[in-house]
Amino acid sequence: MTAPVTFTPSTVLVTGGAGFIGSNLVRWLLRNEPALTVINLDLLTYAGNVESLADVEAQHGPKGDGRYRFVQGDIRDAELVATVLGGAREGQGMRGAGTLAAAVPAPVIPHPSLPSVNCVLHLAAESHVDRSISGPAEFVSTNVQGTLNLLACTRAELEANPREFRFVNVSTDEVYGSLGPGDPGFTERHPLAPNSPYSASKAGADMLVRAYRETFGLPCLTTRCSNNYGPYQFPEKLIPLMITRALGDQPLPVYGDGMNIRDWLHVDDHAAAIWAVATRGRLEDEVYNIGGESEVPNIEVIQRLLAALGKPESLIAYVKDRPGHDRRYAMDITRIRETLGWHPTYTFERGLEETVAWYVANREWWQRVQSEAYRSANAMYLAGDEA
Ligand SMILES: NC(=O)c1ccc[n+]([C@@H]2O[C@H](COP(=O)([O-])OP(=O)(O)OC[C@H]3O[C@@H](n4cnc5c(N)ncnc54)[C@H](O)[C@@H]3O)[C@@H](O)[C@H]2O)c1
Predict the structure, then answer these.
(1) Is the pTM value of this prediction over 0.90?
(2) Which residue lies with its CA nearest to atom 25 of ligand 1?
(3) Fewest C-beta in 10 Å: which of 28, 31, 49, 229?
């Protein structure tokens, strides 16, 4: 059964829209929702890449049909977030390129008009577990303080200009901790037990979202998804890392015994689920789990990739396990399936085949993001007339 649409946003703010999931979500929204305007607020850290959206910019940017606007900036920047939420008049100065880390005033740049926002899809985050182990502070700053700033700015905007609104916080199955081999999948009622600084920071954000709903009545929902895969994923994550290394005949580093199990969700299925929650989600349900119903041990993922690429298993190199490495994640997606009618459409076989084909066909994209070159491309973009 599919629940009817209860809310039709006209302008969506996607945070982190130049990242892996964000760029796929922006493309999915513009393709599937012809009346929608999408504003992408992204700081362009190492993980953000405007090149992933070059086609979208050309078709839907200010020189196209105008349904897509990119704003470079930091979700921790209260002034900038308030301006974006409330809408900006043509030519009005908007602070851009602002980062809290750089203690220099951000430039004020004239910007084409922006409509006021009535839905936030919040994805901006530091997202890589290994990086959170070597440097947890940035994760707390972006994921916790950044989310708090977005919530506070949304609350202020809705108090000043009340309107129907949805705030969807995109979180992770990792907040639930780890499962044993025979345990049932996580339900939304599973206690939170994050084990890495990354998942702890995401759990912190989830709790703030809950608090803003309970304390201030903000119309917020949280989604928690399993491992995403698909095109445009930064090659530090398992699937693109292994594909790109295998293509270069480099050793494939596998943590521990390789028997850590993840559930794999195709990024397009994830985009459809986020939109289902934004438009049909029940505020009283608070949290929706999203999964691909494809539990696979890491080593098997790698074996399948090697087979698809025609590369030998001798490339596999076992390395010392990651500290605090969760053994197994699995999602119970009964709630979103039964109340919103969403379910994954990709089998892992089909999704993996398409993803391998994408990386083989888009060698230029991933070779550039592995190099420093794309950072200067991002900088050039900012110097252009949109920014
Ligand atoms: N990739 C997955 O498998 C997965 C699984 C579960 C949950 N998630 C969540 O989904 C979201 C997106 O994940 P992803 O894999 O696309 O991440 P990603 O690292 O590819 O992209 C993150 C984006 O956020 C931007 N960003 C970082 N700090 C920012 C800031 N302070 N202000 C504005 N923008 C900032 C980056 O520039 C980048 O474009 C994250 O919240 C992540 O925790 C991801």
Answers:
(1) yes
(2) 16
(3) 31
